[in-house]
Amino acid sequence: MIEVAIHIAFVLVSAALALNAWRLLKGPSAPDRILALDTLYINTIALLVLFGIHIQNGVYFEAALLIALMGFVGTVAMCKYLLRGDIIE
Predict the structure, then answer these.
(1) Cα(39)–Cα(5) distance, rounded to whole angstroms?
(2) Residue 33 and residue 8: Cα distance in Å, rounded?
(3) In terms of Cα–Cα distance, which of 19, 20, 23, 17 is closest to 44?
(4) How many other C-beta atoms lie within 10 A of the C-beta of residue 44?
(5) pTM over 0.90, yes/no
(6) What pLDDT is stored for residue 30 in this prediction?
(7) Per the count of CB atoms within 10 A, which of 11, 22, 43, 84 is most buried?
């Protein structure tokens, strides 16, 4: 039963990933694209966690943690650049 739920979750998160990639490419403004990129890495984290559960391996959880850290830093840097025009003050 859990395998069926994991496969359904794979399909739904992959669809969300595709829709976020479309918003990233076709976003009407820069804040929309930053938000799409932020949501894109969150969906990537979800896929890694689902894959780690599926194959019962803990390495993918560590990879998800690293992507979360890099995604947060990247989002903050892009927002700071968008607001001030410079990342380093």
Answers:
(1) 22
(2) 27
(3) 17
(4) 18
(5) no
(6) 86
(7) 43
Residue with tokens 């391996």: 57
Structure tokens at 73: 């830093």
Q: Assess contact for 23 and 11: CB atoms under 8 A.
A: no
* Tokens representing residue 56 in the block: 């019962």
Express each pLDDT in 1-59 by its tens digit.
899 999 999 999 999 999 999 999 998 998 898 899 899 999 999 999 999 999 999 99
Domain extents in the chain: 2-84
Distance of alpha carbon 39 from alpha carbon 41, whole angstroms: 6
* SS3 state of residue 46: helix
Residue of 56, 35, 44 whose CA lies nearest to 16: 44
Q: How many CB atoms lie within 10 A of CB 82?
A: 13
